[in-house]
């Protein structure tokens, strides 16, 4: 973590520079973490942020009150996705492993910061999501084109659902139980009934569907398309695309604030964060994510929002840091 510490110091110096252009969201701090942070999630009840460091095979834990890295937990090989059940204070990590072997999901107790179980799933799990109401976890397995459904009480796979080709993202609407899986090669989103684990419909979207997020207040689903640099907006009531929003290059991740409806899209190749209005489906602003050192371009890859505070957390894979933005 020496490099991460040095980057954090450089980040502090950068924040102190003058001449910054004011934006609707403001960068408050940058936190050095492990190499290539790939996924990020927030527990709003404990104000703890969890960041998956793919190259270090670790999860960094960040105290949201002090914005400091409080330690790491070693998990499986190549962790890329992370999700939290705030009701049980349990963290779930999708470990890709190698494409030829089954991947795993690491289960972490948020009270002890210890791995309590390792669950075999499909090949190359990437995206992961939790329905806290049912204590069910969903893992998208990119190589075998399936989604594993995990019982959170027993830590066992209860079902394996066939989806589209190369599923990378997964999100769940905890109010309706509906699960959404983005399929990169199929350019589609698979919509699954969470009560029956049966596919309800497949929705065509843009090229290279990757990240997916759902606004539980409106039922609206947002899908990033990395091959055409857009976001598809899907109505949760009709399962149809109602808008397509141009964003930056390399739009992998996506997060939404259910209270304000604002959507945040990190653009990996552009080094920017697109801020999108959920009411108008228009880009409100494009924020440059600073690299560390400053002369280097950043590579923001994932984002998460604390629904309680509205704080936005962006995992910058290129600079091994997490950026914290105030709404």
Can you give me a brief rundown of this structure?
With 327 residues, this protein is mainly beta.
Low-confidence spans: pLDDT under 50, at least 5 residues?
1-22
Query: H/E order of the elements?
Result: HEEEEEEEEEEEEEEEEEEEEEEEEEEEE
**Which strand order does the major sheet show?**
1-28-27-26
The biggest sheet amounts to:
4 strands, antiparallel
Radius of gyration, in Å, reads 18 Å
CATH class category name = Mainly Beta
Count of β-strands: 28
Helix/strand class: mainly beta
Overall geometric form: globular
Helix content: under 10%
Any idea how many domains? 1
Name the quaternary structure.
single chain
Gross CATH architecture: 7 Propeller
Which percent range describes the beta-strand content?
Answer: over 45%
The chain-level mean pLDDT equals 92
Distance between the termini: 29 Å
Question: Can you describe what's shown?
Answer:
By secondary structure, the protein is mostly beta strands. It has a single domain, classed as Methylamine Dehydrogenase, Chain H (7 Propeller). Helix content is 4%, strand content 53%. The protein contains one helix and 28 strands. It has one helix spanning 2-15; strands at residues 26-32, 37-43, 48-53, 58-63, 68-74, 79-85, 90-95, 102-109, 114-123, 125-131, 136-141, 146-151, 156-162, 167-172, 179-183, 188-193, 198-204, 209-214, 221-225, 230-235, 240-246, 255-256, 263-267, 272-276, 283-288, 300-305, 312-316, 321-326. The protein has a four-stranded antiparallel sheet. Strands 2-3-4-5 form a four-stranded antiparallel sheet, with no helix packed on it. It has a four-stranded antiparallel sheet with strand order 6-7-8-9, with no helix packed on it. Strand 7 and strand 8 (102-109) form a beta hairpin. The protein is globular and about 45 Å long. 55% of the residues are buried. Mean pLDDT is 92; it is low at 1-22.
